[in-house]
UniProtKB/TrEMBL annotation:
Keywords: Carbohydrate metabolism, Isomerase, NAD. This is UDP-glucose 4-epimerase. The keyword Glycoprotein does not apply. One of its GO terms (biological process) is galactose metabolic process. Belongs to the NAD(P)-dependent epimerase/dehydratase family.
């Protein structure tokens, strides 16, 4: 099966390309490299032993999408391409709505034109907002989004559901990610944010490497064991494997119009301070960090109930927090060795 991976040069997309190849799929990448690097393509080739077909294109560009679909004859799509920083979305909501909704609409429209039926959507636990009960299950009511980013994911889920209801033959799964961390064991690919990282772990590793003066923890007055926010941190390789399982589930689903959602996390909530302390222990590093004010758009705590993913998709997280943080640091060290600029 030939699978289009939008945003396939990005953090999660690149790891998913590897897992698709290892599972017998033929991945093809579309990426506009607005938040990724073209050198990832050669690193993917090094990992999997062959070149990956890739196109430099914006997923909002329907004309470009049609040309690529006409040439490649896809069997399915995994849609990662989106702007993804919570803080930035609060500052630039119009950009987030245009890019995230526009690219999803364009992709679904072109898929329908070319008869491509299988669609895996990169969603987020942000659709739950601040849940009233933890852990969250797929039946947990979605709350008012805490940021424009989270709202784009919620709206995209609704768009996909409505397309399925309209009986176009679409079979789709939304994977609600928790917090991806870590890197490939080869240290050839990992999270490579441009400018100042908006996610915790890459900022943490850059601070540990001396590229940032210190790490700021946003708030220590939350109602949690140590006052810092709680998240469910999942190794990116485990997350990538969930996309393969989702495609396999769609392939064996006989129903013509199908939609479902799955949580993709570890099922364990970890405070920010515990994450920092674990990073220091497993990598034998003392981190320079300070407590700062709360950040707009952040929720207090969230972690997953993942029984449905295990029972229905046959997937569960296998890697530990310690492995995730070792791999993240190994990746940062590889970047330093390559004299990479971040």
């Amino acid at each position: 099966m030939k699978i289009l991976v939008t945003g396939g040069a990005g953090f999660i997309g690149s790891h998913t390309v590897v897992e698709l190849h290892q599972s017998g799929f033929e991945p093809v990448i579309i990426d506009d490299f607005s938040n990724s690097e073209e050198k990832v393509l050669s690193r993917l080739e090094s990992i999997i032993g062959k070149a990956v077909v890739s196109y430099s294109a914006d997923c909002n560009d329907e004309t470009a999408l049609r040309q690529i679909f006409a040439k490649e004859k896809f069997d399915g799509v995994i849609h990662f391409a989106a702007s993804k920083a919570v803080g930035e979305s609060v500052e630039k909501p119009l950009m987030y709505y245009q890019n995230n909704l526009g690219s999803t609409l364009a992709m679904l429209k072109v898929m329908q034109e070319f008869g491509v039926k299988s669609f895996v959507f990169s969603s987020s636990c942000t659709v739950y907002g601040q849940p009233d009960v933890l852990p969250v299950t797929e039946e947990t009511p979605r709350q008012e989004a805490a940021s424009p980013y989270g709202n784009t994911k919620r709206i995209c889920e609704d768009i996909i559901r409505d397309v399925v209801i309209s009986k176009t033959g679409l079979k789709a799964i939304s994977l609600r990610y928790f917090n991806p961390v870590g890197a490939h064991e080869s240290a050839q690919i990992g999270e490579l944010p441009r400018g100042v990282p908006s996610n915790l772990v890459p900022y943490l590793t850059q601070a540990a490497a001396g590229l940032r003066e210190k790490l700021t923890v946003f708030g220590d007055d939350y109602n949690t064991p140590d006052g810092t926010c709680i998240r469910d941190f999942i190794h990116v390789v485990d997350l990538a494997k969930a996309h393969v399982k989702a495609l396999e589930l769609l392939a064996k689903t006989e129903e013509d119009n199908f939609y479902d959602v799955f949580n993709v996390g570890t099922g364990e909530g970890v405070t920010v301070l515990r994450l920092i302390q674990t990073f220091e222990q497993v990598n034998n590093i003392k981190l320079n960090y300070a407590i700062g004010p709360r950040r707009a758009g952040d929720i207090e705590q969230i972690y997953a109930q993942v029984d449905k993913s295990h029972n229905v998709m046959g997937w569960k997280a296998e890697k530990t927090l310690e492995e995730s943080l070792r791999d993240a640091w190994r990746w940062q060290q590889a970047l330093a060795a390559d004299n990479a600029t971040v």
